[in-house]
Amino acid sequence: MADQYARDSEGEQPPGPGPLRWEEPPEGPVVVLLDQRRLPAEEAELVCTDVPALVDAIRTLAVRGAPLLGIAGAYGVALAAARGYDVAEAASLLEGARPTAVNLGYGARRAAQAYGAAVGRGADVRQAAAAVLAEARRLHREDAEASERMARHGLALLDELLPGGSHRILTHCNTGRLVSGGEGTAFAVALAAHRVGRLRHLWVDETRPLLQGARLTAYEAARSGMAHTLLTDNAAGSLFASGQVDAVLVGADRIAADGSVANKVGSYPLAVLARYHHVPFIVVAPTTTVDPATRDGASIEVEQRPGQEVTELSAPFPPAAVSGTTGRLPRVPEAASGVAAALVAPVGTRAHNPAFDVTPPELVTAVVTEEGVVCPVTGTGIAELCARSRQVTMS
Asked: CA 245 to CA 229: how far, in whole Å?
């Protein structure tokens, strides 16, 4: 592990374990995940041997982030096909695991369609399974390529909106390598600015209640050698007021046909703050996150998470640290899930815990995708983007 943390000549650390990969051990194919629930305390992997295990990993946020969920959905269908399970049922289970993230259903359906097409051509079970795996790998590559192109487009937009460089960027939740086949969405833009010397500072919202910003984005920023500071979500207003934010960069889990954006809860308040303080609010997401079938923001189904995520304070700890035998973390009670938890509200307190909120298009300065930038954000602009994306896919 020590070599893994050694810095390279540019001040960045090696990226560490990838968030998802396909393996074929002698006992049969598996999907291997970097368990994001345990970061940053421990880089532990989770092996999924069947679709129910992968669905549970998705629901419990061992794997998360819109683009990566699409990849996970595709590999999940490939896993079902390779192990002889019902492919259509697997695709349905995966698609329903988290309702807001449109990429998850996209990846699962795309893989299932590849299976159906192979069977329609007369392929046997093994050949059809191989076709599904090839499609999942193709989606994985496409997302990595999309990440690189989004970073280029996003950096060019930042330089246009904020001439002179030295960008001070505020981000919310986690949008880096942990959510992507490449280097991410919004975080990839900030990373591109860092690499060319135009990122002055990255402000990281801790992102309550599950602290994806604190646990994951700060983890990725540190590994990349980026100057960054963590702040509580409710400190963002004072940061804007003091003039220390030049732009807000966030990702998206679904973009409706009118340009409304569903993203991690807490994004909408940032958009309101950004508008009041005349700061660009930029959404970075692949075209697979755009859902033309969802008419507007009111039509987006917002996932409601368990209330205990709000009423209990949970954090991942390595098993040794939790047991108190070794490690630098204090001994704490261990929840059934294997993470340390403590009550922060009286027993029986009800909690409102939407996983996402929706930002209307008039508060979004621009949407950055691998196919280009939509600015201003309108239904017409989103439709033109989707048309370009289809042309590229078909060519």
From this structure: 12
What is residue 4's predicted lDDT score, i.e. its pLDDT? 32
In terms of C-beta density within 10 A (0-12 exposed, 13-18 middle, 19 or more buried), how is residue 254 classed?
Answer: buried
Token match 């280009």: residue? 372
pTM recorded for the entire structure: 0.89
270 phi and psi angles, rounded to 5 deg: -65, -40
DSSP-derived 3-state class of residue 255: strand
Determine what percent of the chain is predicted with pLDDT higher than 90. Answer: 84
Q: Of the given ranges (9-18, 30-39, 205-214), which has the lowest mean pLDDT? A: 9-18
Average pLDDT score over the chain: 90
Active site residues: 253
Rounded Cα distance between 185 and 283, Å, is 9
Sheet holding 45-48, edge to edge: 20-23, 30-34, 45-48
Measured CA angle at 347 (ends 345, 350), to 5 deg: 70
Q: Which DSSP string corresponds to 72-122?
A: HHHHHHHHHHHTT--HHHHHHHHHTSSSS-HHHHHHHHHHHHHHHHHHHTT
Secondary structure of residue 68 in the 3-state scheme: helix
Give the whole-angstrom CA distance, residue 203 versus residue 189: 14
Q: What is the pLDDT of residues 199-235, one digit of tens each?
A: 999 999 999 999 999 999 999 999 999 999 999 999 9
Give mean pLDDT, residues 334-339. 45
- Tokens (6 digits) for 54: 């992968």
Do 344 and 128 form a contact (C-beta atoms < 8 A)? no
